[in-house]
Amino acid sequence: MKCPPWPEGRKLVHLDLKGAPPRPSYLHKLIELFSELGADGLLVEYEDMCPYEGELQLLRATEQPAYSRQEILSMQEFARSKSMEVIPLVQTFGHMEFVLKHRPLWGLREVAHCVGTLNPHKEEGLRLVMEMLRQVVDLHPGVNTLHIGADEVYMLGEGEESKLWLASPGRTVEQLFLTYVTKVAKAIKEAWPHMTIIMWDDMMRGMSLDTLKESGLVGLVQPMLWDYNPDLNVDITVSLLEKYHRAGMSELWAASSFKGSTSVYTCVTRTQRHVENHIQWLKVASSLPAGVRLRGIALTGWQRYDHLSVLCELMPVALPSLAACLQTLLHGELSVEAQSRVSERLGVSSVEVEVMDRRPAEETLFPGRRLAELIVELNALLSSDDIRYFENNMLVRGWFSPHQRQRRMVTPLITLRIHSQATEYLITLQQKVEGVKEEIKRLYPESTAQEWVEEHVSPVMAPLQRITEEVPVCIQELVP
Q1: Distance between terminal CA atoms of the chain?
Q2: Which of 50, 297, 368, 474 fits as disulfide partner to 254, beta carbons 3.0 to 4.6 Å?
Q3: Structure pTM?
Q4: 152, 158, 251, 391: which is the annotated catalytic residue?
């Protein structure tokens, strides 16, 4: 059933730059496409790609250069020329892996073995967070909205100082969370009185109405409720938004997903999954009671689940999904008309990247299309049973098992056949891999190409390579 289109409010595309940061030239092409597809803002999560200076310089990326100040200013100027607002996202409590992984900052962790959570009791930690925010605000002239993260604050309350704090009667982990975030929000308002502050909502979902009312956050922050599931529970989501509203948090946001939320290692985006997530969000928006409204929605495109996890899908394979999701918001469903708009704008026959036709790539229609096509082709090979489970096929299991290799008890005729097949697969894969690597390097730093291949290709190729190396050793004394 068709839903009402997304109500008035911002439609932000999330740029997660903690993995596969696009080259500046490609970033501009993406921003232009986002604008043409119906987005009117960017939620930019820099992490280590921000050119931090002074005492924060150690936070900069090492695998590839962080963006320069001029590159970030140029990105904002280009976005403004497309009438797109830029909202920086700076983590301030949880997901601080890119900060707390550095040895000089280990002492600021809540617990030693949790790299992501900041100790909320150390003034040095708050000072560090405020310096991060100060440098980011300085990099964004005229910025009036900040997203301070604060999601998934794992192990909170488990540190020794937190245990001591919680030992006082009536104190809870919920209050510990609220106390610290309120302190951050107040410090931001003191430094920049005009600043609007957004934060993720998940740490507040289980809190009572009274706890939220008494938290001190009312009037300081705007919760952004995130849910990326295609079967998002509409009733529960509506009730959560109502609770925040009754607590006095009348400015509310939603967050959906167009990529990066299927599994931690997904390689190719499934558009329908993400379209269904947006349809559920449309149902939420149309079910809200009078007086409760959403200021906007952020379409998240996670590049990693966190700073230390593997790469999710690269942006090119997710662009048909993003286009379909934005059109779904604009039309209330992924109608024939909406799909036609996507096909016309991107020059594709289907919104599913795996089955779109293979026309000659035209950068003006689909920036990164050639890479998307190559990744789909290579992923199909890597996922094929013949290649992925080569070591488990009948010939290898029956005539070239680990036991037989160790004792050189092999049949040369069959073993050479195994070697020939493994070699053929390796050559085919290597040809595809070289094309993908070269195309990735056109759009991303070389380190992204290296990481992508090591994560997605090397584990599949390694067994084939081992077999091709072991066959000659096993048969050298058996064949004249």
Answers
A1: 73
A2: 297
A3: 0.94
A4: 152
